[in-house]
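call fold(seq) -> tokens
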Amino acid sequence: MYYISKNDNDIVEDVYSNTVYLPSDIPVYSITDEEFQQINADGQNGNWKYIDGKLIPYVSAEQNKQTATKLLELTDWTTIADVGNSTMSNPFLSNQDEFIAYRNEVRQYAVYPVDGNVNWPVVPQEVWTNS
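ret:
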């Protein structure tokens, strides 16, 4: 049996019995062995929140900023002027505007990072067209 504290998300393992000896002012949730294994497998011990009866990973604003920065880096090439220009490139990226919209959504989290799980936009599929 494992427990996760409501305050700081420390994981407490009860190895001897089903009783955990914690000060009464530290409220805890009981978590399943599967949830405990998931936490350890993901290397996120201490970065989980128990919300509405579900154990979910907690992501800091800094982690979201790093993710956004990486997503922007992966699509930097789509901003090169000739990539989407049919007179300069053959084939050319015909949906460059979709990448611009995607990058604008992601950039919000790079510039104004937030705590918590982010519903990241889906990167567009490349559409190449011959001139």
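The chain is about 30% helix and 20% strand.
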